Amino acid sequence: QVRLVESGGGLVQAGGSLRLSCAASGSISSINTMAWYRQAPGKQRDMVATITSSGSTNYADSVKGRFTVSRDNAKNTVNLQMNTLKPEDTAVYYCNADVVAPFRGRGVYWGQGTQVTVSS
Questions:
Q1: What are the backbone angles phi and psi of residue 62, rounded to the nearest 5°?
Q2: DSSP letter for each residue of 32-76
Q3: Which residues of 38-67 are buried (b: 16+ CB within 10 A; e: fewer)?
Q4: What is the rounded radius of gyration, in angstroms, for the C-alpha atoms of the chain?
Q5: I need a surface site. Which of 58, 70, 108, 120 has the fewest CB within 10 A?
Q6: In this structure, are strands 30-39 and 18-26 parallel, antiparallel, or unpaired?
Q7: Given CA atoms 41, 44, 49, 53 in this order, what sign does their dihedral have?
């Protein structure tokens, strides 16, 4: 079984910073793309940032220049550094990973989510 666990959410004032982390554990052969998504109340879950195993990144337009995604392939972790936070960044943030597991094959896994609240 593969498990993703996020950490690092919390309450911060507008203009502040937070760093989210996500660790994948379990029976893992390799991880392809890892990503962060977010879901605000009453809204759909949207992609925030993605990073491939080779380090190529992609960002939602709303976070470009403020957020940075990174990963450690040896530790199966992905991070999201969030700077210059805005109230509209308030959401539950979810980690996502495209995992190849022994015998199970390829699958997409989600973490349980971590709340980020930005006060104005």
A1: -70, -15
A2: EEEEEEEE-TTS-EEEEEEE-TT--EEE-GGGTTTEEEEEETTTT
A3: beeeeeeeeebbbbeeeeeeebeeebeeeb
A4: 14
A5: 120
A6: unpaired
A7: positive
Q: Do the strands 67-72 and 114-119 form a parallel or antiparallel pair, or are they unpaired?
A: unpaired
Q: Give the span between the Cα atoms of 104 and 82, in whole angstroms.
A: 34
Q: Are 100 and 7 in contact (CB under 8 A)?
A: no
Q: Which two tokens stand for residue 70?
A: 């990174």
Question: If you count them, how many residues does the chain have?
Answer: 120
CA distances from residue 115 to 41, 42, 85, 103 in whole angstroms, order as listed: 11, 15, 14, 34
pLDDT for the residue 53: 97
Q: Cα 5 to the chain's mean position, in Å? A: 10
How do residues 18-58 score in pLDDT, each as one tens digit? 999 999 999 999 999 999 999 999 999 999 999 999 999 99
Contact (CB, 8 A) for 30 and 100: yes
The one-letter amino acid at 4: L
